Amino acid sequence: MPMTVAYNQSGLHPDQLTIWETFVENVAATAATLSLTVKGSSFITGDTALKKAKEVATLIEALKQSGLPEEKISLESIRLQAASGPVLKSSAAAYTLRLDCNDLEKLTDILAVVTGAKNVTLDSLDWRYGDICERKTKWIARALDQANTRAREAADVLGVKIEGVYDCEFDYINLHEYGRRIDAHPAAMEMMRSRQSFSIGMPMQQSEEKGIRVKVVYRISNPQ
User: Fold this and answer.
1) Is the full-model pTM beyond 0.85?
2) pLDDT in tens, 31-43
């Protein structure tokens, strides 16, 4: 990546050399989380809905057949839908489920089940990138090493010497706390159900460029 150099020998903080450096790499996703809504013909409260709500139970069985463990399926919320008669007996409901897919090789089969069900809407897909603490340490080291190299090169050209560091700042690139969310497009869901397209309205992106920007302000000697 290109670097930027700022050389200051006047003003409030004289004798400074500022270097901006960037280090990025392609990080592959390690897991995915799907959020989906199931339209049910009955209202059932609590986790018992996973087994007693007909539409939900049918979907879960199909997901298990696709390779998703049952313990990776959880009920996030239940919303009542307008209906006549006693609410708890005749009201329909919308069930929001969370699917945690830790084996991306099974994701295609899971998506086929979800998008193939008429009473199911895929709301979003979150890519997960695992524990990146070790990567962050590497990014900092690589970016600072590059900055130090550029600073020495610039100092040689300017005829000055690096004597220390005034300040150092970091800014992470594409470092999402909860992964990367892609919202599904409703029209694309209908297209896939009718087999017009296998697109689900979201890029099947399994990697993303991540990294760090650093700004280092070096203390320099007077020009020779």
Assistant:
1) no
2) 999 999 999 988 8
